[in-house]
């Protein structure tokens, strides 16, 4: 109630139907009291409402001050505390109110920047950075001192910032604040610094840039995610301010290099090569840095994971690609070099996968449980004259074993975390690359640039597009995504890989090149073959089939909106048929008593294969059981996705029938997956229970609509079961 009352009170102060009206002195005084009192509010809703009101208030302030300035009734004098205004009657009153408003805005900007001191609470810094970003979007922090037609720009006269805001000390303080513990604050400080002048005050020469880059590299190489993200953001800031905007040559490889360019991007008359080559040099230095990190991991993976391994460098590359416009003139003028760099980057990514994937995949589950018995017991049991000495040696032996065990377990955890972070960043980097990089297109629908001709020799024109990844490389990236999804068992890394795979498939399906569209169909076929592959055991069902549902969902979500769906109907029909075929096989086996055997003869595992994979006989199931569980897990994931609700509704009834019939399966895995899929079908067909209000929805589904929409006429018992389920759900709502 208190927050609601405060919001309503501030609402009356901020908003006014007359958008160009000046606030009164009382309103400004109340605002000056209310702002410091509400800077540490923990309510997210209040923070969002507060930011929205300030956005409207700043727009009103700018309109009002510009109106007074254009009318000539008031002019700000930045060196004094009072504004220059006329002294007669009403104009004097309006000028005083404009002056009070202008100085209030200068006080507010200083207060917000002072609220970002290093030891400030999270709530205060979060609120301050949000309001600063809103203010920077309304008034530029860089004053415009140029003149046009003898009049000073309004932007330079009315911007409400003090000189100390962009001082070297303040700038370095904000740069150091990027290492904050909270992700949102790190990103907010980075966004604020993007509005600062070029070069950054306090980092205006090559020596200071080298110091900042070296500091950022140490942060990137930290095993902590917070430090590596902060270092990557600092390098992204250097890229944006110095490489892209000033045209400086910065190399962040093993040896840090920074060279000032006299013909940067600010010089519009300079040559294109001098202003664009620094981008290529910067990306090449990052790729060389990644190559060195991979070589360290290939020599000793455990030691490499203690110092970040490669996830920090991969994160820096991902931020670089997000900041870079691949269709800009600076990149297209060096397209051949960019293609070479992307090809090398793809090779390095494959090397990283070969190093880290086995750690977070199913193969890691079959490692020996205890690898720590490496101490020679005979060395401790040599000739001992007394029993006391033997006991003491035995105690020392136990202590050494326990210490060695703890060290090895800690090392294994370090390797696991490092490899997981590496695979996560690999997937995110590839996803960012395929979203940003130009892809091949159909030559008949898009004009291509002529690279070279040779008419005299009869050689046709050589046409080269702006594509930086060819068909083979895109197929390699897709196969990599599919391999990672099918092998990895870590849910966090699977989710990031699914996002990258979705981005790749979406770009391919939106392309006008039929060769790219066919790639997604081939990946769908590979995924289907893997789902029903023979020789699968219970370990393949870990994490609810792990990446198989994620891979199918990525293909479903990648289909463009508004276009007819092709992959989703085909896959859902096939999945239902897989589950139905398994049920029919079980029904036939139940009808023949002689077929009651633990395992079918055509699914006998080779003993050599079992010993190689370290699989016990108890993990083997009859043929068709594991694919059926995969099918139900994929159906559950597809029906639980809200974005696929409309497209999956046509398969609800049939999927519901096969899930209910699978309740009688003799295998617990099938019954469990069928029950979970059944719950997803019920939620999608009927809806969610309103737990808070305990009342039915206004437009809830009625019984007549339910049975008219989902026909169960082929099986009367299922109709009764669905009727009882529907009535039970309605009773719970009421």
Structure, explained:
The chain is mainly alpha-helical. Among the domains are: 1-162, no CATH class; 470-593 and 613-686; 687-734, no CATH class. It contains 30 helices and 8 strands. The chain has helices at residues 2-14, 25-37, 44-71, 89-114, 122-138, 154-158, 168-176, 183-194, 206-220, 225-244, 272-299, 301-306, 311-323, 329-332, 335-356, 377-380, 387-436, 471-487, 491-509, 514-531, 542-545, 547-558, 567-591, 607-613, 625-640, 645-648, 652-661, 668-686, 703-709, 716-733, and strands spanning 74-75, 84-85, 147-148, 151-152, 249-252, 256-259, 449-454, 459-464. The strands form 4 sheets. A two-stranded antiparallel sheet has the order 1-2. Helix 8 (183-194) runs parallel beside helix 10 and helix 23 (567-591) packs antiparallel against helix 25. The protein is globular and about 90 Å long. Mean pLDDT is 79; it is low at 79-89, 146-152, 263-276, 365-388, 446-464, 593-604 and 730-734.
């Amino acid at each position: 109630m208190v927050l609601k009352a405060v919001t309503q009170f501030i609402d009356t102060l901020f908003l006014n139907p007359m958008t160009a009206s000046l606030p009164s002195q009382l309103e400004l005084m109340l605002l000056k009291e209310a702002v410091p009192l509400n800077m540490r509010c923990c309510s997210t809703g209040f923070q969002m409402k507060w930011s929205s009101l300030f956005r409207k208030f700043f727009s009103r302030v700018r309109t009002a001050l510009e109106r007074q300035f254009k009318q000539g009734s008031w002019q700000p004098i930045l060196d004094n505390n009072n504004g220059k205004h006329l002294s007669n009657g009403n104009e004097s009153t309006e000028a005083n109110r404009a002056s009070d408003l202008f100085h209030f805005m200068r006080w507010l900007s200083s207060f917000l920047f002072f609220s970002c001191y290093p030891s400030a609470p999270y709530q205060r810094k979060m609120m301050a950075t949000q309001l600063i970003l809103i203010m920077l979007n309304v008034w530029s922090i860089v004053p415009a001192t140029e003149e046009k037609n003898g009049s000073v720009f309004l932007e330079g006269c009315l911007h409400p910032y003090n000189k100390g805001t962009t001082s070297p000390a303040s700038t370095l303080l904000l740069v150091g604040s990027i290492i904050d513990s909270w992700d949102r604050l790190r990103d907010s400080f980075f966004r604020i610094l993007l509005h600062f002048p070029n070069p950054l005050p306090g980092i205006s020469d090559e020596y200071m840039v080298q110091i900042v880059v070296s500091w950022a590299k140490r942060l990137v190489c930290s095993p902590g995610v917070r430090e590596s993200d902060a270092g990557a953001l600092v390098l992204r800031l250097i890229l944006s301010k110095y490489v892209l905007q000033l045209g400086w040559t910065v190399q962040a490889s093993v040896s840090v290099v920074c060279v000032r360019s006299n013909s940067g991007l600010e010089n519009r008359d300079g040559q294109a090569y001098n202003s664009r080559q620094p981008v290529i040099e910067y990306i090449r230095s990052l790729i060389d840095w990644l190559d060195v990190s991979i070589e360290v991991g290939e020599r000793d993976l455990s030691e490499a994971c203690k110092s970040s391994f490669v996830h920090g460098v991969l994160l820096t590359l991902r931020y670089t690609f997000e900041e870079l416009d691949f269709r800009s003139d600076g990149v297209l003028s060096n397209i051949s070099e960019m293609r070479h760099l992307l090809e090398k980057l793809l090779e390095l990514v494959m090397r990283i996968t070969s190093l880290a994937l086995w750690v977070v995949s199913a193969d890691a589950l079959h490692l020996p449980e205890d690898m720590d018995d490496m101490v020679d017991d005979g060395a401790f049991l040599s000739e001992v004259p007394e029993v006391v000495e033997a006991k003491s040696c035995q105690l020392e032996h136990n202590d050494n074993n326990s210490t060695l065990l703890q060290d090895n377990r800690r090392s294994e955890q370090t390797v696991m975390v490092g490899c997981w972070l590496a695979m996560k960043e690999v997937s995110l980097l590839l996803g960012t690359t395929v979203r940003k990089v130009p892809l091949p297109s159909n030559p008949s629908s898009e004009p291509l640039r002529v690279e070279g001709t040779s008419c005299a020799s009869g050689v046709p024109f050589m046409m080269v597009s702006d594509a930086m990844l060819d068909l083979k490389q895109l197929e390699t990236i897709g196969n990599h995504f599919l391999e990672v999804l099918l092998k990895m068992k870590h849910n966090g890394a699977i989710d990031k890989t699914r996002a990258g795979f979705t981005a790749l498939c979406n770009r391919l399906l939106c392309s006008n090149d039929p060769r790219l569209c066919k790639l997604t169909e081939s990946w769908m076929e590979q995924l289907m073959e893997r789902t029903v592959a023979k020789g699968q055991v219970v370990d393949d069902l870990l994490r609810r089939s792990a990446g198989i549902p994620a891979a199918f969902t990525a293909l479903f979500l990648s289909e463009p909106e508004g276009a007819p769906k092709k992959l989703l109907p085909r896959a859902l029909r096939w999945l239902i048929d897989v589950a139905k075929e398994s049920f029919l096989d079980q029904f036939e086996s139940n009808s023949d008593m002689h077929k009651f055997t633990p395992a079918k003869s055509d699914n006998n595992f080779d003993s050599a294969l079992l010993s190689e994979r370290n699989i016990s006989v108890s993990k083997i199931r009859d043929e068709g059981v594991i694919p059926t569980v995969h099918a139900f897990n994929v159906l559950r994931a597809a029906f639980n996705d809200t974005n696929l609700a409309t497209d999956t509704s046509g398969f609800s009834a049939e999927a519901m029938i096969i899930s209910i019939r699978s309740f009688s399966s003799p295998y617990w895995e099938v019954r469990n997956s069928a029950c979970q899929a059944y719950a997803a079908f019920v939620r999608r067909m009927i809806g969610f229970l309103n737990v808070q209000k305990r009342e039915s929805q206004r437009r809830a589904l009625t019984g007549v609509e339910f049975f008219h929409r989902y026909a169960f006429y082929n099986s009367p018992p299922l109709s009764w079961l669905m009727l009882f389920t529907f009535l039970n759900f309605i009773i719970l709502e009421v």
